[in-house]
Amino acid sequence: MSLHLCVPSRLLQVLLTLSLAALLPAWAQSPNGDSGSGNKPAAVDSAAPPASPAQNPPDAAASPQPEKQDKRVFGVFPNYRTTDGNVPFQEIPSRAKILIGLKDSFDWPVYPVAGAFALLYQLENQNPSFGQGMKGYGRRYGTALADQVIGNMMTESFMPVLFHQDPRYFRIGRGHGSSLHRAAYAASRIFVSRTDSGGRQFNYSEWVGNATAVAISNAYYPDTRTAGQNVERLAIACATDAFSQEMKEFWPDVKHWMFHRHDPQPQMLAH
To answer: How much is the pLDDT for 47?
Structure first.
């Protein structure tokens, strides 16, 4: 009955996600461009090519050093899952997967984001049985917060432990293909996951985790329990995660463009 009330904000989320995902590679592009000219696109999840012996002293480390990752994208959004995809893979234990989910679920930006979604749902009167006023807003805030916490814990902690998959995002960075190649790689990570042994596998953690979170949400969303509404929420959750991967991939480039674009010699990312 309330599906038509849910559509505007859901479509807004999808359109915003797709438009920002399209803009990120353009923002991240350097003045000289990284459209692939002179850079052969690397294979998805490929490791960085080994350095030439002539360029390194005999006692130099054989493996590239991991790139330091910002803990917050745009200084706000949690970025605890990102790691350098150009260094040798190392398995993380189950407790590390649980910790990643906890950090993403209870970091301070989660609370204002839930508040913003609750306000949007209040204005559209989604789930009318919640009512209006402070009581209605409080229920919408609680359910929006629950959506984020349950979704994070399912996709980043519990399902990765169950399926023996790695919840981290393995960033490939500049010098490993064009911006379009990197954008496609980032978006595709909702379908491809690393296993604990370092192999590739369908991302069961993403889809089963979000599907489980949606199923659980039926317990506190009394007005949106149809199959179509559940599929819509699952699609929104996965699309949001795809956009999150785009931010993780391009944030260092955007940061450089914002703060160092006038440097005489822009520094390239170290691998």
So the answer is: 40
Alpha carbon of residue 246 to chain centroid: 7
Using CB atoms within 10 A of its CB, is residue 88 exposed (0-12), middle (13-18) or buried (19+)?
exposed
pLDDT per residue as tens digits for the range 181-211: 999 999 999 999 999 999 999 999 999 999 9
Regarding predicted confidence, which is higher, 9 or 131? 131
Residue type (1 letter), 1:
M
Residue 165 CA to residue 184 CA, distance in Å, equals: 21
DSSP one-letter string for 155-178: IIIIHHHHHTEE--EEE--TTSS-
With respect to residue 50, please indicate whether it lies within any of the assigned structural domains. no
pLDDT tens digits, residue range 147-193?
A: 999 999 999 999 999 999 999 999 999 888 899 999 999 999 999 99
Task: Give me the pLDDT at residue 262, please.
Answer: 53
Please answer whether residues 79 and 139 qualify as being in contact, where contact means their C-beta atoms are separated by less than 8 angstroms. no
Question: Which residue range forms the structural domain that includes residue 130?
Answer: 3-30+73-260
Question: CB–CB of 168/82 below 8 Å?
Answer: yes
Give the whole-angstrom CA distance, residue 123 versus residue 135: 14
Question: In this structure, are residues 150 and 102 in contact, taking their beta carbons and an 8 Å threshold?
Answer: no
- Considering the domain boundaries, does residue 66 fall inside one? no
Q: Which residues are within 8 A (CB) of 80 and not within 5 positions of it... i.e. 6 or more apart?
A: 71, 100, 103, 104
